[in-house]
Amino acid sequence: MSKKPIEINSNKYFMYCGIGGILACGTTHFSMTPIDMLKCRMQVDPRAYRGIFDGIRKVTLGKTGLSGLYLGGTATFIGYSLQGMGKYGFYEYFKYTYGQAIGAEKAHRHKTLLYLSASATAEFLADIMLCPLETIKVRMQTALPGTSIGGFTSTLKHIRATEGLRGFYKGIAPLWFRQIPYTMVKFASFENIVEAIYKRVLKRPKSEFSKSQQLGVTFAAGYMAGIMCAIVSHPADTIVSKLNSVGKDAGGKGPSIGGILNELGFAGIWAGLLPRIFMIGTLTAAQWFIFDSFKVKTGLPTTGGDGSKSPIGKSHNDHR
Q: Per its record, what are the GO molecular function terms (predicted)?
């Protein structure tokens, strides 16, 4: 007895997209923890390391050894699993909902605007779940020698005891400023790059390619989208790292956004960009590949089309 296919744009479909997002984001962000940790430290103190390899050498030769590269890994895994669930699940939900509101014809004609609006809404909600874990992660990773609070649980308790709920969400505005443009570029550029590959490079409809070939297109488009994401969101990422660092002024207050901008200047805002391009490019490609692989495994189509159909679709058969 064959399994009944999951209907596209059904509640079950959105739920499966959320599960795919957990698998895609939680695992990939955790795997990149060493690069992320070094990047955060370089943003807070550009003199900390001369580059990625110098940072790896200094951390592994220190007291913590190899495990020091995965500082903040638990917070990263939990936070980005929650964010991935919201990002991918809500994206598909709002893409369909907004598309239905304006109609299939307008959705097809203004598909990039549809991708941008759906991804912005999805990321806004996903970041509310991510922010407390991002705060814990950055606080752990940017702690100066002798100021470390400890592990995940002790850092959580310390922030709650000293700053309350506000302490977990003081970085929500710059996080939105970083993540929403990032996700808008990630989804809109990915969908358009996939379409361009089929139309202009391969010059054949998506349906004529096997699932493994489609996943190859997914990975290539994901990497190109990731490079664009890294550049667009990097200044805000630097601000988030500095804002959540443990440094405080004489009055006992954390750094302000204006103070950070004055301190770093234009060049400082772009510190750590190269490791972030490598991290985000690899991360984004891997996320799309894992997400689409999960969809294929569960009988769903890969993300993106060749421009021949409305991006919202109405049934399982419309996306074959």
A: phosphate transmembrane transporter activity
What digits encode the pLDDT tens for the residues 217-257? 999 999 999 999 888 888 877 777 777 665 544 444 666 77
What CATH fold (topology level) applies to the domain 11-319?
A: Mitochondrial carrier fold (1.50.40)
Residues near 278 by beta carbon (within 8 Å), at least 6 away in sequence? 35, 52
Query: What phi and psi, each to the nearest 5 degrees, are found at residue 133?
Result: -75, -35
Average confidence (pLDDT) over 181-210:
94
What is the 3-state secondary structure of the chain? Answer: CCCCCCCCCCHHHHHHHHHHHHHHHHHHHHHCHHHHHHHHHHHHCCCCCCCHHHHHHHHHCCCCHHHHHHCCHHHHHHHHHHHHHHHHHHHHHHHHHHHHHHCHHHHHHCHHHHHHHHHHHHHHHHHHHHHHHHHHHHHHHCCCCCCCCCCHHHHHHHHHHHHHHHHHHCCHHHHHHHHHHHHHHHHHHHHHHHHHHHHHHHCCCHHHCCHHHHHHHHHHHHHHHHHHHHHHHHHHHHHHHHHCCCCCCCCCCCCCHHHHHHHHHHHHHCCCHHHHHHHHHHHHHHHHHHHHHHHHHCCCCCCCCCCCCCCCCCCHHHHC
Residues 139, 145, 147, 152, CA torsion sign: positive
| Single pTM value for the model | 0.81
Check: CB of residue 140 under 8 Å from CB of residue 75: yes
Percentage above 90 pLDDT, the chain: 52
Cα dihedral sign for 55, 60, 63, 68? positive
- The three-point CA angle 95-292-86 to 5° equals 45
